Amino acid sequence: MKKHNLSVIPQLRSLFRLSSKVVDLRNERKLVLLTGGAIGIGAATSELFAEKGYNVAILDLKEATETRERVQSKGTQCLALRCDVSDEEQVRKSVQIILETYGRIDSLLNIAGVALVKPLESTSWEEYRKVVDVNLGGTFLLCKHVTPVMKQQMRGSIVNVASISGHIGGFYRSIYGASKAAVISFTRALAWELAPFKIRVNSVSPGLVDTDLLRKNMENESQYLGQSYQEIRTKRQGDQAFKRFADSREVSEAAYFLASDASSFITAVDLPVDCGWIAK
User: Cα–Cα distance between 131 and 189 in angstroms, integer?
Assistant: First the structure.
């Protein structure tokens, strides 16, 4: 997998030098750390937390300039770092920079992920490793390096983004579904491990969300099934009780609920945001 060097927005690093003034400022707001915050669900979630008054730290392979600007327009601070979540050293350094900058991490949202829609016999070992390393490995690495911070604080909330594919079977999604089912299992076990430290761990399982990733997946599915893109899109929308795809904001609202004090007695739960698909 291609490795990327950490790239910190220069003006932000100079702004957040550890001075007594910055120490005072950084204690005023809660801090949410999100992976995959540059686009899609991650970008929508970053903006929602900013609206709720959180400072935001984003880790993504992609540049998060637009998301950072939208977050800052809401009156909060945003630190954007380039990071491969499947690279432990990059994750470790990123968490260290965030902690040095803000002095706290109140919520962790593991949103970064990759999808694979492909017949099993055509799937390479490299493709398998990428899906597992990012979807499960990235979640593991962020939790590994953030939980010591939360343990010291004796508080915190972790929300992992799984998928309905972790609950139900789907054409050409065996590896992707397995990785997301593992995230759900990981979430439940970690919730009990961290309960003595007052850290809650939950997951969200989105259904079909109207993003570029979904459109790409439907294009792949169209190719493998020999059906038109529009036929696939119509069929997938028909799988939803409301006959439409979700908006990224609808998933973000569920993730924020689980991260916030509104769900203070909820841990080890997977919340489907699937318009009834799992129950069908």
Answer: 21
| Alpha carbon distance 76, 55 (integer Å) | 5
Separation CA 91–CA 138 (nearest Å): 9
The pLDDT, as a whole number, for residue 7 is 45
- 273 vs 15, more confident: 273
Annotated catalytic residue: which of 54, 102, 172, 176? Answer: 176
Q: What are the pLDDT digits (tens) for 163-191?
A: 999 999 988 899 999 999 999 999 999 99
Q: Residues of 81-100 as b/e, b for ≥16 C-beta within 10 angstroms?
A: bbbbbbbeebbebbbebbbe
* pLDDT value of residue 27: 53
Contact 231, 165 (CB under 8 A): no
pLDDT at 221: 77
The CA distance from 219 to 229, in Å, is: 6
Please give the domain boundaries of the chain with CATH numbers for all domains. 10-273 (3.40.50.720)
The reported pTM is 0.86
Segment 208-239, tens digit of pLDDT: 887 777 788 778 777 877 888 888 888 888 87
Q: How far is CA 11 from the centre of its chain?
A: 26
d(CA 139, CA 108): 10
- Is 224 a known active-site residue? no
Q: Which pair of structure tokens corresponds to residue 243?
A: 């006959």
Cβ-contact 47, 67 below 8 angstroms: yes
Best CA proximity match to 106, nearest among 154, 62, 178: 154
Can you give the length of the chain in residues? 280
- Is it the case that residue 156 has pLDDT exceeding 80? yes
